[in-house]
Amino acid sequence: MAATQTIQVPHLGGIKAGYALSNDHYDPSKPTCVLINSMCMTVSLYHDQFNNKELTDAMNLLAIEPLGHGATSCPSEHFTYWDSAIMALQVMDHFGIQKAFALGTSQGGWMVTRMALLAPDRILGLMPLGTSMDYESADSRSKGCWDPAASLTAFYDKWTSPLATPDFVVDDVWCGLVGGIGFGAAATAEKSAFWTQTLKEVYKGDEGRKKVRMALNCLLERDGLLLRLRDIKCPVYWLQIRALRIHHLEPSFLRSKSNFSLLPRRPNWS
Known about the structure:
There is one protein chain. Helix content is 37%, strand content 17%. By secondary structure, it is α/β, with parallel strands linked by helices. It has a domain at 5-145 and 223-265: 3-Layer(aba) Sandwich (Rossmann fold). Strand 7, helix 10 (251-256) and strand 8 form a beta-alpha-beta unit. Helix 3 (81-94) packs across helix 4 (107-118). The two termini are 15 Å apart. One of its GO terms (molecular function) is monoacylglycerol lipase activity.
């Protein structure tokens, strides 16, 4: 399911940002970790973390649904990952959170890295999970990464319409791709059913069509960050899943970061 709580932040003329906050309040005596979900997922991606009492006793968890996802909406049909990063920083402002660690899964890794570039004094550390810092480049292809344009542009074209689409509901094929690619070998029938239902609740009607279309546009046409990585000032703790070839870790990130740790893991997004 999408976030059940939203707040208003000023970026892009007023964004309604979907979020989940552990224990339903911010405890300034504890460190905070901001969590940004992967493509078409919601704050529910971090359900297990929010239900881990040992973890939530030790730190605040603030999951934020980026633009084009979950309960988050804004007046502008167009936005980028930079806009989601600014929005996330403004959500931190709303709760009075001056500094935080930031964890991002897949596309969330692109957003939390942008947060660290925009506010280097506020992000204490980055935890990118199964992500990339490149745009969808030929160099990425040469390293064995997938080519989303070849597979997904047809969806973007299908979701483009000059007329309103009040009866739109995202189809089962897209729902299957999101769950299959996102969870890989860790996918289960239960997870597939949950996320199919969630996506169909979020991406319905004309607003839902525009929302999923722009979420995909952000994926396909994002800018790369490789030349900016040398400006990342905080420690980076990167978990990369070797069994999933969606993204490949760029050697340039390793060369640019002295405070960098890489932990390869088996596929497990739970």
